Amino acid sequence: MSQIKKFDLKYSYDIEVDSIFIKITENYKYQESLELEDGIILDFSEEGIPVALEILDISDLFSVKKDCFNNIENINITIAITNSSISLNLLMELLIDNEKIDQPFSTVAKNIINVPEMEVICYC
Known about the structure:
- The protein is mainly beta.
- The chain has one helix and nine strands, in the order βββββαββββ.
- The two termini are 23 Å apart.
- It is 4% helix and 63% strand.
- The chain has a nine-stranded mixed β-sheet with strand order 3-4-5-2-1-9-6-7-8.
């Protein structure tokens, strides 16, 4: 990877539509979105940096109750971009029945929008 970028994150969860929106805390200008897979949307800035992630139907994806996303302890995201692919690795730590439970998710998509090679590490 030619560049490594690190960002702090903030998030909001909408229980009615069961979606989470995670974005970097720095200001950015939105350029475009890429749906990595059904309901997993990654937003990019004008500089080609991944800056936001929206996950629809997240309780189904992680097979947990919707109200569990009101108790997110940590979120860690690593995005590795090559000329041919975009790999997303997400780890959420949820508080479920007073126990911290890791909820991992990974996906890979083609880099069809020609984002430059980089690795992005985000956390909150």
